[in-house]
Structures are given as C-alpha cells and as structure tokens.
Amino acid sequence: MSEPSSSSSSSSSEQDVEVRRATLRRHTKDLMGMFAEEEGKIAVARNQLMMERREFDELLAKLKVATLPSPVLLNVGGMLFATSAETLQSRRNTYFGAMFSGMIELKPDKDGRIFIDRDGTHFRYVLNYLRNGELLVPEDKLVRKELLVEAQFYGLQDMISLLNPAFSDGILSPEHHDLLNSWAGVAAGQKWRLLFKGTRDSFDSLAFHTKCDNIGPTYTIVRSGKNVFGGYNPHSWNSSGTSSPGAGSFLFTIVNPRGVAPFKLAHNSGSGPYNNSTHGPAFYGGFSINGTQGSSNLTSRAYHDPQGYGDYLFGGMQFVVSEVEVYTPEN
Fold it and tell me: Fewer CB within 10 Å, N- or C-terminus of the chain?
C-alpha cells in the first residue's frame, strides 16, 4: 500500500484550519450579537431605574414642600423676602428645585428663615421673574451684568438667555459646522436647521422629543462650562425606550479640558443612540443629557477613543449642561 502524499496531508490540514476559523468566526459573531442584546437590555433597565428614581425624587420634593411653612421666608445676603414654594419651583432644573429636592440642606434660623449666601440687591428681580414670567429690569448695563451672574448661579436658563442675547447664538463656528459635516460624510457647505435649544425651549426631555423625534439625522452639541462636545445620530430620535443601531453614529470633542484639537470618536460596536421619553439626547457608551444634568460612561467597546482620555473629554462622569443644541441637515 502506498504512503499518503505530503501534499494531501498538507491540503487536509489547511482545510481543517479553515473549518476551525469559520467555526470560530461564527461563534464570535453569535457572541457579539448576544453581547449587543444584553447591552440593550441593561440600557433599558438602567433608564427604567433612572425614571423611577426621578419619580421618587419628584414625590420626595412634593413631600418636602408640603412640610414647609407658608410663606417661605428667605434671607438673601441679609435682605429678607417672603414667597411660596410653588413660586420658587416654577422653573425646572434650578437651584431652588435642588433646595426642595434635598440636594441642598435647608437650615432655617430661629426665625424660620432660609439663608442664601448671595447678594440680595437684585433678588427681587429674580423673584418677580419667577412669579410673573416677565423680566422687568433697568437698562443699566451694570445692573444687568450683575443680574446675569445671579441668574447663572440660580440656574435660570431662560432668564440668562433674555439677559445675554449672545446665549442665543449657536455654540459652534461655521468652521466647526464644516468639520462635523466632513465627519458625517456630507459636503462642507451643508446647512443645518436648529430644532432644539435648551436655553430657548427649556431643558425638559418632553420639549426635546416634541421638537426632535422622527426628523431624521441630527447633530447634538453640548456646552458644559468651557467644554464643547456632542454626537451625531444618523437615525431619527424617538421615545420608544430602545436603542438605534450604532453604525454611522459618532461622538466628538471640540473644546476639552486637555486642550487637544477637535477629533471624532467613531462607533465601534453595540448599541448607539438611546431613545427614551424621560431623557434628552443620549448615546449608549458615550453620554446622556437629562435636563441640565449630564453623565458620561465612555467605553471603547461603543466608541473608539483614539487618545484614551475617556470621560475626561466631557469634564468628568457627571457634568452640568449650560447649553444643548440639536440640528438637522437642511434639505
């Protein structure tokens, strides 16, 4: 009987290797699909938990308000004021809302007054704005500048916009618009249409979804302090509580604590933009916006961070949103 040729043995070995490789690729693909599915389930559960926490916080705030004396007595930098809890909470996501949510400890003095360590000179303008929704202040530039500082401290975003028209301008320069267009694969001259602006429309998630759902691709730009960053969603936002496919989406940084030039964080794998009625724009494995609060959980599994800076690109895992804008390309 003749011996098997070496070429036949080699061919058989190569075939075995190819079969094993194909099997390994199939198993890898199956595992990645299972992983992406589990990621989606975790995201849904996490957002459900956050929604329940928000409902709990709102209920807790109502209970705290119910136990407050009426009227609420305030000592603002030595000047005394009296108002109601309803007036102080007439704007969402403000310093006053934090007061009644338990985030700021209330320590009334012996006369029942709550002390706020701010200059009380212009507080009556703040209080009247909360009562009436109208901003009636002198045209004096110094007064308006001082009042702007107070509005920023109290987190009154719509009041800030009225006092400083510059806040109504877009966050990005035309050059940055062209840069984002190139990253999205469209022509540099592509114009955008503003759909949503936090300081104009309120930072409420309902306002965001009312103006941005079922529109098409969008750019989200966030300003937090000096930092400017955002994300591109090639799909329409919606309120389904599910994630959109991540392919084609990306994050970006324009101004960051590291001082590095703008760059793009392309999508790697797994889920992408997350759609939930209780949240503003959210990118799974990137960042999410909820009112004027933001959180980051940048993971290389979702978006490729070529510099390895992680959450520091956004200023940290938790950040305060001073402005958010959402644009869609014009037809």
Answer: N
